Amino acid sequence: MKNLWQNFNAFGWGLIGATLVLQPTVAQAQYIQRSFLNPGFESPVFGSAGQQCYVQVDQSLIPGWSTTHGSVKAGTGSCTGYTSPGSVPLIEIWTSGFIGASTATNAGNQFAELNAEQASELYQNLCLIKDETITFSFLHRGRSSATNPDVANFLIGLNTIFGRFSTTSDGTVTAQPVAQNGATIPNVSNNNAGNGWVRYTGTVPYTAASANQPVGFAAVSTAGGDNTVGNFLDEVQFAGLPVLEFTASSGGAAESETTPTTNPPKLRIVGLVPTGGISVPISVSGTATLGTDYKTTSGTSTFNIFIPSGNYDGSDATSVFTIPFTVINNNIPQGMRTIVFTLQPSSSFFASSTTTCGGSPTIASSYTIYDDDFLSGKVWDDADNSANNTFTNINTGSETGTNAGGLLNAILVDSTNKVLVTTSVAADGTYTFINVPFNQNDVKIILSTTAGTVGNTAPAPSLPSNWVNTSPLTTAAFNTGTNISSKDFGIEQLPDTNNVIGSTKKNPGGTNTVQVPTLSGTDPEDGNFGSGNSFKIVSLPNNGTLYYNGVAVTANQVITNYDPTKLTVDPNIDGTTTIAFSIAAVDKAGKEDPTPATVTMPFTGKPQLILVKRITRINSQNLTDIVDGRSDVSSNAANYVASPRDIDDDSSNPWPSGYLRGMINAGIVKPGDDLEYTIYFLSNGQGDVTRVQICDLVPTNTTFLSTAFNGMTPSDGGLPGADKGIALGLGSSTPTAYLTNAQDGDRGHFYTANESGIPSSCGININGAVVVNITRSSDLPNLPASTGTGTPANSYGFVRFRVKVK
Question: Per the omega criterion (within 30 degrees of 0), is the bond before 39 cis?
Fold first, then answer.
């Protein structure tokens, strides 16, 4: 470690030959800087052990230092591990012995060359205080000539030069330092620091306003006139008196903390403390009594804090000193008492802000002693309701304390319900009244979300939303005394139940049941709810019957150890309907969700498809008659349809008006006549019809007309040019597509007589069969049930083909 303080004794510091043991790096940004940091350029260490080398690095790499050097050239260097920073503002560092230039005696291993690649300035930003006198010391050496000096200025700000220094490479002082702007700089002898170095010292008055100022060296000239060579610097220090203040204006703890550690008063220091350290005078006052409530190190109301020598940067780790005193603990209720520690004036330091240059300091810090004759307790998250509305057995197992999200207050009230003391409950559920009135009769403790006001009527007991109490929220009356604890409460959070929406299912009909989708929920203490938990059936469905394990469920029944497979429902309506009922999760504390969830189960009725066949054309004559089939007429009547199909063959079903045109019995035809058959279909059930395929066998004694609809559009994706013998109408009284006979991409296919692959539902194919897939997954997956005449559109339609009578 370099000796930073030699020769300072001549300038009022009263020390000589001291070695500084504290050398911080960069000052923390939140504190002012009062002295040069990293004054000897020893940080970071460059090169390997004993290596003689140099580096040119970015200024950010050298703690404490900045430069006005421009980005004129990419940095170079010869030290092991060096990497060029590129073209950046450069600071050049040499290790001792490189090109014959060694450090001064006892001056470490590294130093800086002011002229890296141009004449520039090396500086640090210091907080300077109006009308102070600053002491400085530094080492200077020329580089390249024993006869011609390198010259540098030491200055404040951009223009205030207070000293010019001229030194050759062998330590010859060609001209004694020139002091300016009120500075005092003693004459020096040649090579007074060894190895060609000269130590210059002095003092500088600062009369401007307190402010942060750049302080540093600016190159003036070099021995050879080359601005890239010259002006070695080392052990630079420029420091006024250190700055001190208290870290906080107040603190305190219970009197049981006899050696204060929670938040005791502390001093923060920034700046250079000389060898021998300094004594900081402190006085004490306040409502606490010296000798009864506390003791100082001196036993009197004044004492000193010793600050060792060092270069302090204000950081908590190195620059904060705790005020030493002890608190006297006793069993006498005394209430709160305060000690006020006050920083006294001294010529050894400035009382000033350590965070704002020239700002007002915190010169007094109060410490409150709280009576530890306490009354305390804890609020437990009683997840299993072990308290059961009592104050016993509240905590069981792994239950933890809580303050319900930071919203609880414990309030001590007197017999008239007036607030004596109020305090917030801590995150772990604990609370402590540390200033309890002594021997007070019939007091109570209340839990409330509202903080009480001392002397006023207490607020009503209360808990945050979704919390309930497992013990009373007000204790029984008791009398205060010394150190009363375990005034505990129990509370817990309510569960939350999830809504359940089941997928649409076919109504099973009759007395058949369907399993209810799995019930679920969550609880802050118990976790996710489901199988094995408890659920309350808050309300029953009005159109179905709930069963659990085969037994009808009653309203408000609680199902414990819930098994999802045992909860079923029987819809009371066999058609389309929706079952709905409400449920509430019940947690392990027996508390239920106050906002029940709903279980919804939609059912569809049985699907039904009506098929009606008509002759709608003979030769070129369209038959437009509207005929309803009947079974109560003669079997040879033109409208006879055997029961029970006569009910289907009736325009009173929800067909569009006038839709069922054509004849049931069109009379006698002769060979060569063309006949047109139309098969009408209608989804007329309580649910959608899926996978609808219509197959109609070509009547005997007729021949399928394979080209009946050639040239007609639109098509349905069949092969271009293929014969079209089938027409399809979906939600229309006229064809919406014409289908090919081939088995291709459209819906239709004509199977020739005895052709293999025909659907089994067609029966025996002895004369050909027309097959049409009414529904298909790509565009019409099902036929919706009709809700009225002709609605929805896809609930009805027809298939049409033509034949010739043999």
Answer: no
Q: What is the pLDDT of residues 328-372, one digit of tens each?
A: 987 676 778 999 999 999 999 999 999 999 999 999 999 998 776
- Residue at 576: amino acid letter: T
Q: What is the DSSP string of 43-83?
A: SS--SSTT---EEEEEGGGSTT-EE---S-SB--B-STT--
Tens digits of per-residue pLDDT, 229-265?
999 999 999 999 999 999 999 999 878 789 999 899 9
Q: 215 pairs with which residues across the strands? A: 124, 156
Q: Which residue has the tokens 């070509």?
A: 698
- The CA-atom distances, in angstroms, between 552 and each of 516, 567, 575, 597, 600 are 14, 10, 22, 20, 18
| 126 and 33 Cβ atoms separated by less than 8 Å | yes
| Strand 364-370, strand 250-254: pairing | parallel
Q: Measure Cα distances from 419 to 370, 456, 457, 462, 657 in Å.
A: 19, 6, 6, 16, 83
* Residue type for position 500: V
Q: Which of 440, 441, 476, 445 is nearest to 458 (CA)?
A: 445
Mean pLDDT of 521-548: 95
What are all long-range contacts of 644-650, with beta carbons under 8 Å and residues at least 24 apart? 648/610, 648/611, 648/612, 649/612
The burial class, CB within 10 Å (0-12 / 13-18 / 19+), for 406 is exposed
From residue 100, give the alpha-carbon distance in Å to each of 30, 72, 392, 785: 42, 27, 85, 104
Cα gap 500→561, rounded to integer Å: 19
Cα(782)–Cα(80) distance, integer angstroms: 81
